[in-house]
Design a protein that fits this description.
- It is globular, with a radius of gyration of 22 Å.
- By secondary structure, the chain is α/β, with parallel strands linked by helices.
- The two termini are about 20 Å apart.
- It has helices at about 40-55, 60, 100-105, 120-125, 140-150, 175-180, 200-210, 220-230, 290-295, 300-305, 350-370, 390-400, 415-425; strands at about 5-10, 15-20, 25-30, 65-70, 75-80, 140, 155-160, 190, 195-200, 215-220, 235-240, 245-250, 265-270, 280-285, 380-385, 405.
């Protein structure tokens, strides 16, 4: 029997999910990251990867047909010709490259996705200033390097990870303005996420008892993997992540980009099982509102008990813009936008009702903005994150969005990556 392995390297830990050909989960494992103060990050990643592989039972390892890995978007590193890191990797949220933005602005098109302090290209330009750059031969994303440890092919990436390096995901090539940068390093070869790259290294297969023809497939980013796990697959379907912040992703036949709101589109290969060749775009934006604001006022237990007392069919007249601190990205782009959580009524139930409804209004406005910019019309919203477990909030959101709101089928990014591996070797 064939099984498929998805590996997720997220912000707080690494995870694996093994699925069968019916996409049913057969095994799961976790490797929590213990500390952000790790002196040798690549060695730590390597230990996490092989610890997770060893946690899979021998019986399952013998039947795994394909493996795929996701990593955090714009977590990058420079490697020598042997694949050894020449310096410490830069994590997804490392903004030290901000000093390169003005130089990059003179080269990149206006409002381009790379014009961010944390983009992969900004990081590459910043890293190119240091002596260690002379030893570098390859620029890789986290998922690329981890996959290299398994298949041995250096310099291969997928078009999800490479988006923030400036790769043109519509024309499927590096644009001329990047070529003109004349960066003295190998930019990664780009393939479709899920594409089989090479068989698992023979020594790994033999040592750990994997089948010799186990394929390692191109990966994706952790957020895209979580989307793939949700069950959304048709244009007009979307996923709202109600975690600490509010993140929206909408499937559309039209590509939409607007750097003013941090909106960009990922290209997605066909998602349905019938082999439809239509490629879709995953367009999204992220707001600073979300669950972190709720936790500022209420405990988890209070949120659950107070929510049960809310009449979700009644419209709250409280008009809030819940933020932890000044500044919003989407659907309003205003770095000075002040939090608005007053007046606070005497009733905690009314106050929570106002907060939940106000965040739902921001969600609704976010999807309206995406549609105004040209995406397909919203038809259904899948929900991930802690907020998905709140039925009162779901009812409020459904009233405002005016489309069905359902929980994601699965919220584990590793599950979405396992689906990618299965699709890669079976659709080809």
């Amino acid at each position: 029997m064939d099984f498929y392995l998805g590996i997720d390297f997220g912000t707080s830990g690494a995870r694996t999910v093994v699925i069968d050909k019916e996409a049913c989960i057969q095994a799961e494992a976790r490797f929590p990251f213990e500390s952000s103060d790790i002196s040798d990050l690549t060695s730590y990643w390597q230990r996490a990867l092989f610890t997770l592989l060893e946690q899979i039972t021998k019986e399952l390892r013998q039947e795994i047909r394909a493996i795929s890995i996701n990593g955090t978007s714009s977590t990058v590193l420079l490697c020598d010709a042997a694949g050894e890191a020449v310096d410490a990797p830069l994590l997804y949220n490392d903004a030290r490259g901000a000093v390169m933005i003005e130089e990059l602005r003179s080269i990149a098109p206006a409002n381009h996705t790379v014009l961010s302090a944390t983009s992969s290209l900004t990081k590459l330009l910043w890293m190119s200033q240091f002596p260690s750059f002379a030893k570098a031969r390859y620029f890789l994303h986290q998922a690329d390097w981890l996959a290299f440890l398994l298949h041995g092919q250096l310099g291969v990436t997928d078009y999800h990870n490479v988006l923030k390096l400036g790769y043109d995901v519509e024309e499927l090539k590096y644009p001329e303005w990047i070529e003109n940068l004349k960066i003295k390093i190998h930019l990664p070869k780009v393939v479709t996420p899920g594409t089989p790259i090479a068989e698992l290294r023979a020594e790994i297969a033999e040592q750990l008892g994997f089948r010799r023809d186990c394929m390692v497939c191109a990966g994706t980013t952790d957020s895209i993997a979580a989307f793939l796990a949700s069950g959304a697959k048709l244009s007009g379907e979307a996923v709202t992540s109600l975690g600490s912040t509010l993140v929206l992703k909408l499937l559309s036949r039209t590509r939409v980009e607007d750097a003013r709101y941090g909106i960009y589109s990922h290209r997605l290969p066909p998602l349905d099982k019938k082999g439809t060749k239509e490629e879709l775009w995953l367009t999204g934006g992220a707001s600073n509102t979300g669950g972190a604001v709720l936790q500022q006022f209420f405990t988890k237990a209070e949120l659950e008990s107070l929510s049960r007392e809310i009449n979700e069919s009644k419209v709250s007249e409280l008009d809030y813009y819940p933020l932890l601190k000044p500044g919003e990205r989407f659907p309003i782009n205003d770095s000075n936008l002040p939090p608005r959580v007053e007046p606070r009524p005497a009733s905690d139930v009314e106050f929570l009702h106002g907060l939940l409804e106000s965040i739902a209004r921001i969600e609704a406005r976010g999807y309206e903005l995406l549609q105004e910019l040209g995406t397909d019309r919203l038809s259904r919203v899948y929900t991930a994150g802690g907020g998905a477990a709140n039925p009162t909030w779901t009812a409020i959101r459904e009233r405002l969005l005016q489309v069905p709101v359902v929980s994601s089928m699965n919220t584990e990014a590793a599950y979405g990556t396992a689906l990618l591996a299965m699709r890669g070797v079976n659709v080809g």
